[in-house]
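stuck on this one:
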Amino acid sequence: DRGRINAEQVLNAINPDDVHKPKSSLVSVENTANRGGGSIYQISDLQNIKQVCLNHNLKFHLDGARIWNALVARGEFPRDYGQIFDSISVCLSKGLGAPVGSVLLGSGPFIKQARRYRKVLGGGMRQAGYLAAAGIFSLENNLEKLITDHEHAHMIAEALIPKDFIGHILPVETNILIFEVTGRYQPRSFCDYLAQFQVRCLPISPTQVRMVTHLDVTREMVDRLCQIIHDM
């Protein structure tokens, strides 16, 4: 389901109590799902998976690199997710536009253990407060701007729909577009053509192209891209 799993699939994937098999201990989901075209989980589906985790003594982790996009698109709140997951990782540099940075969230004992593992593996930075300040700025100033990114993605999708060389377009829920290119263009030639106009996109399969809108993409740029697509 466009990168999303459900409680029944999790239940069926749990290994039996067998010495010949690894012991199932963790369920991890991604929200939004990258290769699903920025697809978003329903909170109720996550709650159902959580119940399976509780019943089978499994930890539940959220890869929330794009969680901000999900929150803005659905009008949800961070606490809605914090009540479900044992741990959450979030990214500050994708949609929010910080130069670098991710954050790991969890209980006090969990974070203490994570810091120990980081030290064991040689991790750690000095004077990281400068980077943290950029992350704080992005959280305080750029969340609402994600709405504009989503609007831009929809505008580009609308420009693509009428073209005879565009096949199936995955439903656009956030800032990611994944679509099929066929006929007189192939994914690589399509991307190469747009590169002439300083438009960067990525062929991700023999039939598909991926585009992502972000903080540095302006409405004027999107209007120009839509015109380029119209003229193709």
